[in-house]
Description:
The protein is mostly helical. Helices cover 78% and strands 0% of the residues. Helix 2 packs antiparallel against helix 3. It is globular, with a radius of gyration of 17 Å. 36% of the residues are buried. This is Inner membrane protein YqaA. Pfam families: VTT_dom. InterPro entries: DedA_domain, VTT_dom.
Amino acid sequence: MQAWIDTLLNWLSLPEYGLSTVFVVSFLSATLLPMGSEPAVFGLAKLNPSMLWPAIAVATVGNTLGGALNWWMGYGAHKAADKYRHTASSSHTRALAWLERFGPKACLLSWLPIVGDPLTAVAGWLRLPFWPCVAYMAIGKLLRYVFMTLALLQVF
Length: 156
């Protein structure tokens, strides 16, 4: 098992396979898995400053595709959302109503920690239009990567 992990880590190491690593990590971190992709983007940009903008672009695409996967998982669980809506507390009902009111624009907040990834799944549950949701996800995630990476590069 340890040899397999070492091989995987060597294959995903930043200096050798930087952009593919950033893509995989950013995709997985956009799903409901509890991980962050900012360290991978920052690490690549710190090791190779000329890769700053390609790393941000690849991370944005990977993270947006992960959010789109969440949307499709939520879309597939639409019956569960309807069942939940009928048994939900008033605060949950208000949250769903808020999301329905703002529509796809609410996906701008998909970059937020803790609530951002589930937000994309709920957008699918509510059957908000797919492509506008993806567009707003991409905008929010791009802005997060730009600001977070540039801020980390200034500090470190």
